[in-house]
Amino acid sequence: IVVHGGAGYHSERLESVHAIKKALRRSVNYTKLSLQRCAAVDAVEEAICELEDDPCLNAGTGSNLNYDGDIECDASIMSGNGSHFGGVAAVSGVKNPIKIARALLENAKIPGPLGRVHPMTLVAQGAVKFAASVGIETVPPASMVSTEAQEIWRKWRARLEQAEGGHEVHEMLLQDTVGAVALDKQFNVSAGVSSGGILLKYPGRLGEAAAYGAGCWASSSGIACSVSGNGEQITRTLLAQKIVHQVELAADEADEIIRTILVHDFIRPCRDRGDIEPNAGVILLVNEHTDYGSTRLWCAFTTSSMAIAYASSSKTKPKALILRRPQNQNSKEPVFIAALPLHRD
After folding, report:
1. What is the DSSP string of 228-295?
2. Which of 11, 15, 185, 324 sees the fewest Cβ atoms within 10 Å?
3. Sheet order of strands, 319-324 included
4. Cβ burial, residue 269 (10 Å; 0-12/13-18/19+)
């Protein structure tokens, strides 16, 4: 089980680092035991629920507020076993948006009466009504707003209104999606994402965390990917799907494939459109069939940092770390990639 707390800027203050690592470690610790008895898709849902419940992360409770000062969450989940998918966007008043996405995934497996096709993605009130119909807890939207999120919103809303053309940007705005990938005992994989979106986003905006192929992807070949970063940039690239499909063709070249996609398919097109800072972070889990019992975790990002945690065995303690891109790295191709070999039980 692997989780991430978003790609962007993470403060080096010990208090902030401790809070993020603690949240990620708790999610992994809670979930790794479940993987002994449940499927990968269950583990991903559980892990993300834990992340959504922690107000120090930008998902569920404590999420960034939109321009109007409201929380609107996006989430999606995908199972490599059957390529089933469920997603929700612009959801308010549901503590765990990933639960709605999972319910949609399961609902889509059931044939509809009279040939009616079940939805793969729901938005706003449609998603909330569906959640209530399947017994998922709904809460007053204001109860999910943290004091810190409210203070940050007031500060940056005021600055945005004063800035000419609204071009003032701060690193605090870059933190985004949380997510998870998992491999179970049956060698099935799953991936998921959840996000409150970028601070001061336009109400009703659909981010990459809800978009099919953009925020997460899982394949029957044993490869799963979860993505974080700027939603519009990632959605244009269909980043998660593209990475998994390319790695499927040559898993032993994953490092070069990830780098090539991030540089040629993501960074350069973004800059051609005038996006000065293309922001993306990726965790990729690859079940290496040529090396029995071995799984490799890849983490790559174009931002200044990315927070991850993982456990490769039910017997090992979760490891949590904030990876940071070297400041002297080539600014034209700012891609940091790390590989971690994991050994299953």
Report:
1. EE-HHHHHHHTHHHHHHHHHHH-GGGHHHHHHHIIIIIIIHHHHHTT-SS--EEEEEEEE-TTSTTEE
2. 15
3. 121-123, 84-91, 73-79, 189-195, 178-183, 2-8, 305-310, 319-324
4. middle
pLDDT tens sequence across 230-245: 889 999 999 999 999 9
Q: What is the mean pLDDT of residues 297-319?
A: 89
- Residues belonging to the active site: 177
Mean pLDDT of the 87-103 span: 98
Q: What DSSP string runs through 130-155? A: HHHHTT--B--GGGG--HHHHHHHHH
Per-residue pLDDT tens for 39-70? 999 999 999 999 999 999 999 999 999 999 99
- 334 in Cβ contact with 256 (< 8 Å): no
Rounded to whole angstroms, the Cα distance separating 278 from 266 reads 7
Global pTM reads 0.92
Spatial neighbors of 88 by CB under 8 A, at least 6 apart, are: 73, 74, 75, 76, 97, 100, 101, 104, 121, 122, 123, 127, 210
| pLDDT value at residue 194 | 98
Q: Where do the structural domains in the chain lie, given as residue ranges?
A: 2-343
Contacts of 260 (CB under 8 A, 6+ apart): none
Class in CATH terms, 2-343: alpha beta
Q: Is the pLDDT confidence value at 172 over 80?
A: no
CA dist., res. 96 & res. 45, Å (int):
9
- Average pLDDT for the chain: 90
Q: How many helices (H) and strands (E) does the chain have?
A: 9, 13
Residue 299 forms beta bridges with which residues?
283, 338
